[in-house]
Amino acid sequence: MENNGFKSGFVALAGKPNVGKSTLINALMGQKVVIVSDKPQTTRNRVNCILTEDHYQIVFVDTPGIHKPIRKIGEYMVNIAINALKGVDLILFIIDTKDGLRNSDLRVAEIVDKSKIPTILLVNKVDLIKDKEKINLMTEKIQSLSSNIVKTIEISALTGKNLSELKQSIIDLLPEGPQYYPEDMITDKPSRFIISELIREKIFHLTKEEIPHSSGVVIEELKERENGVLYVRAEIYVEKKSQKPIIIGKNGSMIKKIGQLARQDIEELFERKVYLDLYVKVRDKWRDNENILNNIMEYKVEEIKD
Ligand SMILES: Nc1nc2c(ncn2[C@@H]2O[C@H](COP(=O)(O)OP(=O)(O)OP(=O)(O)O)[C@@H](O)[C@H]2O)c(=O)[nH]1
Ligand SMILES: [Mg+2]
């Protein structure tokens, strides 16, 4: 097949939680596709984000942060992240200059090294750090651990610093290849997944301590009504009875806020009116329950099988 110089490939993000993987993907995509928060372990599934231009198609693979799992959900997440690197054309390995290097970064470095896939090391959040020496020491340490790093770029996913240079480097490193996805497709995930993520994002933004991480969102019903309104019924899972009133809030104020903000995002994305019905369900220790996880993390199941 003649590709006429069209370039394409899969570009996976790798890094510990909270380094800015999802923020970077949204910045490179030029629109919000994946959810972001200031709390670690926001991303729980692999999400392909597709950027198509005249001469190339980049499929960014967002992944959960690689960490030492405590619960079963963490094991799923790390498995998903590691498996998402298999067979990709390029890896973007992100470190966080603000947080410095930790054991998880060294673990990621080892995984990246083993993959033998060409890797760009991204030294992120440089907007927060003036200490050049610190940045250099971090960079050298990681470079010494991952022999497949072909380039290192200091970036800020938040301010956009050096992102056009990064995009050009990605394109340069991609092979000639086919257009994998239709040009108007921005993610491989179904509407249900995107909607559940937008709801979960609001919980991450509005609640604190153990609440965001104890919460999960499942879409129970999604249908278009005759009047064109998109009807969504979603269940928010929490782990303990005591967490339910926190999600609901005083006189229902918290769940109302979650619903309002999520609805706005969903309406914008789907360009139609949305009716969002939210329920809170206590699911005892759901994060260690494989039956529930296989449902909530359903989008990874084939991924995990080798
Ligand atoms: N100052 C600054 N903050 C950043 C930058 N990039 C990301 N952040 C912030 O870092 C936090 C984490 O960003 P995410 O994109 O959710 O990080 P992630 O790596 O996807 O995290 P997980 O999904 O938990 O693995 C958010 O509060 C972002 O706004 C940056 O370049 N500069
Ligand atoms: Mg993320």
Provide an overview of this structure:
- By secondary structure, the protein is an alpha/beta fold.
- The protein folds into two domains: 7-173, Rossmann fold (3-Layer(aba) Sandwich); 191-304, K homology (KH) domain (GMP Synthetase, Chain A, domain 3, 2-Layer Sandwich), CATH 3.30.300.
- It contains eleven helices and nine strands.
- It has helices at residues 21-29, 72-84, 103-115, 132-145, 163-173, 191-206, 211-214, 244-248, 253-270, 290-296, 301-304, and strands at residues 7-14, 47-52, 56-62, 90-96, 119-124, 149-154, 216-224, 230-238, 274-282.
- A six-stranded mixed β-sheet has the order 2-3-1-4-5-6, with helices on both faces.
- α6 (191-206) packs antiparallel against α9.
- The two termini are 29 Å apart.
- The relative contact order is 0.14.
- The model is unreliable at 299-306 (pLDDT under 50).
- Guanosine-5'-triphosphate is lined by residues 15, 17-23, 36-38, 40-43, 64-65, 124-125, 127-128, 156-158.
